[in-house]
Write a sequence for this structure.
């Protein structure tokens, strides 16, 4: 791969901020992938030379491609493209991003060999004369990488689905993804944002007391601050856990579900959650684990939100054809037709998202609800 000395150092922060702002606006107006681009926190950004050499990148961009930021510097985007995509990518890269805002969709090979479908948005960074001369009159580019939402990716079993059904499934998967993002953004805003503001106020208060010579008072305030920070760290772990259930990777499915059940039990007074797992973790393929976890999570959330139940039984067991997850509550139940598509829009999207998540892996979801025996959600997958 061709290496090159980074020249990003010469770029002015003001120009970079300006390019970032324009990129944000243009991406939103371009509108092909609105859900991802607004997620500025995790934005994967890099600065590319006009011919697509990485001059610098943030951690998100480097991680997306399986490198560290330092390793990525000097590598060429074109060298990461699959052989058959190279010519088309080269042509698209040579189009002037200042003239037309056109996202580039391409398949890149990450460092570990994993093919990664990415959408690349670019914005030229205003450059001074010297920089332009260095790059044959062209400016460096700020590049934003995004992974397309599921709706943009081909479905795993798309070949067997009618077009309308496939479109429908993808739509709900996409809505589900967006809702997860919104919920996480709200959690970050309401939980972490408020907690950090509180910590700042507490530290300022302690500092004021120390300056006034009230050492004991100041120390007490700092003790309270440490507790608050500990709580905030716990909260952050919980949010990270929701983003990608860490326990799932570290401890396996059974332990992650058990932790989830305990958390739900603690969150509502007078609620007992009974969990039974009769499945060996090694019998469940990795690609299904996150789905099983998410279905359990949504069903439990629904019970806490709507059912006024005192008891939940969550079970994961082997059946002849595969694996079965059941979540039974003894709550109020609700008008059935729970998975009727006519209801979508008038109620929430949790159940529809659940159904499409299960079906997109060839599974089956059923909900039975009555006002005498509560609600039973069962999801099965063929193994
Ligand atoms: N276990 C349950 N007990 C009682 N009612 C339930 C239960 N699960 C779902 N419902 C009812 O079904 C409706 C649809 O549930 P769904 O999960 O699709 O949406 P939601 O929970 O209202 O919103 P969202 O999940 O999108 O945040 C709920 O509004 C609620 O009235
Ligand atoms: Mg719900």
């Amino acid at each position: 791969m061709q290496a090159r000395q980074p020249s990003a150092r010469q770029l002015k922060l003001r120009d970079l901020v300006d390019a970032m702002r324009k990129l944000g606006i243009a991406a939103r107006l371009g509108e092909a992938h609105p859900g991802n681009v607004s997620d500025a926190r995790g934005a994967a950004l890099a600065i590319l030379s006009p011919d697509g050499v990485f001059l610098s990148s943030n951690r998100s961009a480097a991680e997306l491609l399986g490198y560290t930021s330092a390793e990525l510097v000097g590598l060429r985007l074109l060298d990461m493209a699959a052989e058959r995509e190279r010519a088309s990518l080269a042509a698209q890269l040579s189009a002037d991003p200042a003239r037309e805002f056109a996202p580039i969709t391409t398949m890149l090979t990450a460092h570990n060999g994993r093919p990664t479908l990415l959408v690349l948005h670019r914005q030229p960074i205003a450059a001074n004369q010297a920089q332009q001369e260095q790059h044959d009159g062209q400016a460096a580019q700020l590049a934003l990488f995004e992974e397309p939402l599921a709706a943009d990716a081909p479905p795993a079993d798309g070949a067997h689905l009618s077009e309308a059904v496939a479109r429908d499934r993808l739509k709900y998967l996409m809505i589900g993804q967006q809702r997860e993002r919104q919920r996480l953004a709200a959690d970050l805003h309401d939980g972490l944002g408020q907690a950090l503001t509180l910590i700042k106020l507490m530290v300022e208060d302690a500092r004021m007391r120390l300056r006034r010579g009230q050492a004991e008072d100041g120390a007490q305030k700092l003790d309270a601050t440490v507790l608050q920070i500990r709580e905030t760290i716990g909260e952050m772990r919980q949010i990270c856990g929701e983003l990608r259930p860490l326990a799932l990777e570290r401890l396996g499915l059974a332990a992650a579900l058990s932790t989830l059940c305990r958390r739900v039990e603690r969150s509502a007074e007078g609620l007992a959650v009974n969990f039974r797992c009769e499945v060996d973790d090694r019998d469940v393929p990795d690609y299904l684990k996150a789905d099983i976890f998410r279905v359990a999570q949504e069903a439990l959330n629904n019970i806490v939100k709507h059912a006024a139940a005192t008891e939940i039984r969550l079970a994961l067991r082997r059946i002849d054809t595969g694996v079965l997850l059941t979540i039974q509550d003894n709550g109020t139940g609700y008008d059935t037709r729970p998975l009727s598509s006519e209801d979508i829009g008038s109620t929430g999207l949790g159940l529809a998202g659940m159904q499409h998540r299960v079906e997109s892996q060839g599974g089956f979801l059923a909900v039975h609800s009555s006002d005498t025996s509560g609600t039973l959600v069962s999801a099965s997958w063929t193994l």
Q: What stands out?
A: Residues 163-211 form the longest helix (49 residues). DSSP finds 13 helices and ten strands in the chain.
